[in-house]
Automatic annotation (TrEMBL):
Official protein name in the record: Glutaminase
Molecular function GO terms recorded: glutaminase activity
GN (gene name): glsA
Membrane-spanning intervals of the chain: none
EC numbers for this chain: 3.5.1.2
Listed GO biological process terms: glutamate biosynthetic process; L-glutamine catabolic process
PANTHER family: GLUTAMINASE
InterPro entries cross-referenced by the UniProt entry: Beta-lactam/transpept-like, Glutaminase
Assembly with partners or alone: Homotetramer.
Domain of life: Bacteria
Similarity annotation: Belongs to the glutaminase family.
Catalytic activity from the UniProt record: L-glutamine + H2O = L-glutamate + NH4(+)
One Pfam family per UniProt: Glutaminase
Keywords: Acetylation, Hydrolase
Length: 304
């Protein structure tokens, strides 16, 4: 029997005083103000038991973690055509890289790099009546928490400096892979990234991927096959040009965001969320990766 509370407390005390914590993302000015010392872990087992330590109950900007949730909402609504508009191959490139998009005629490598997430955003803008509100309500229902909200300051801050995403959206539009106006798609995308959640809420949000498609209320949101495929994409693409390293060190499907959050999961067993805002060179939480490496090594619970 594993003493999970002891495991996460040990990891927290191993890492909490680390001096080398990486750098807080500053290309979105509003995120540059976050205290790099924040550090929280939250674990939810498949039976509903939870364990938490550190700053697990503070709100963080989920950023790219939202890309998995937009994919989960879009896939059941657009099951066949989605994979004609975005591929499922790792990119081996940074999250905002544009060269492959041009080489591959506007079909993004996968839905978790920015260009791929913009195509998914475009699909939702087409299919939803009130895209931002409907997506937020989807997230609230999956987490069973009506308090989850956008941080408008973060969304505006990214809009002011989002030149790279404007470039990606314009390239997609030029290749005929965006149906809606560039500004409408970007407005949706900046808002999905600006959702705030605690580590506890993130562990709940990703429960459906560990639970064959059903959320923590046991309501089905994805088929088993869709949950399996999204987990495969997280494993191979969730950490961009560090996906291999994450699989090697941690061995779980997961997703990071430049707010410093990482959520990972072991199907049938647990979801785990870590928040430490300092990022490594690839834009993934530096302590978050180390914490998860320690977790799967100490518990011997990874997919490998
Ligand atoms: O589009 C961006 O650049 C940000 N809103 C999200 C990037 C991100 O979180 C990458 N993840 N590590």
């Amino acid at each position: 029997m594993i003493d999970y509370q002891n495991v996460i407390d040990t990891i927290h005390s191993n890492l909490k005083d680390e001096v080398n914590r990486g750098l807080v993302a500053s290309y979105i000015p509003e995120l540059a103000n976050i205290d790099v010392q924040n550090f929280g872990i939250h674990l939810r087992l498949i039976n509903g038991e939870t364990f938490a330590t550190g700053d697990w109950n503070k709100k963080l900007s989920i950023q790219s973690i939202s890309k998995v949730l937009t994919l989960a909402m879009a896939l059941p609504m657009y099951p066949k055509n989605l994979w004609q508009r975005v591929d499922v191959e790792p990119s081996g490139n940074p999250f905002n890289h544009l060269s492959l998009l041009e080489l591959e005629n506007g079909i993004p490598r996968n839905p978790l790099i920015n260009a791929g997430a913009l195509v998914i955003a475009d699909i939702l803008v087409t299919l939803l009546e009130n895209p931002k509100e409907d997506f937020l309500n989807y997230v609230r229902s999956v987490v069973d928490d009506p308090t989850i909200a956008f941080n408008e300051d973060v969304a505006n801050s990214e809009r002011m400096t989002g030149y790279n995403n404007y470039a990606a959206a314009n390239l997609l539009k030029a290749y005929g892979n965006l149906r809606n106006d560039v500004d409408d798609v970007l407005d949706f995308y900046f808002h999905q990234c600006a959702i705030e959640m605690t580590c506890e809420q993130l562990s709940k949000a990703f429960f459906m991927f560990a639970n064959h498609g059903s959320c923590c209320l046991q309501k089905r949101h994805l088929s088993e096959s869709q949950a399996k495929r999204i987990n495969a994409i997280m494993l191979t693409c969730g950490f961009y040009d560090e996906a291999g390293e994450f699989a090697f060190e941690v061995g779980l499907p997961g997703k990071s965001g430049v707010g410093g959050g990482i959520v990972a999961l072991l199907p049938n067993h647990y979801t785990i969320s870590v928040w430490s805002p300092g990022l490594n060179m690839q834009g993934n939480s530096l302590l978050g990766m180390r914490a998860l490496e320690q977790f799967t090594s100490m518990t011997r619970l990874s997919i490998f």
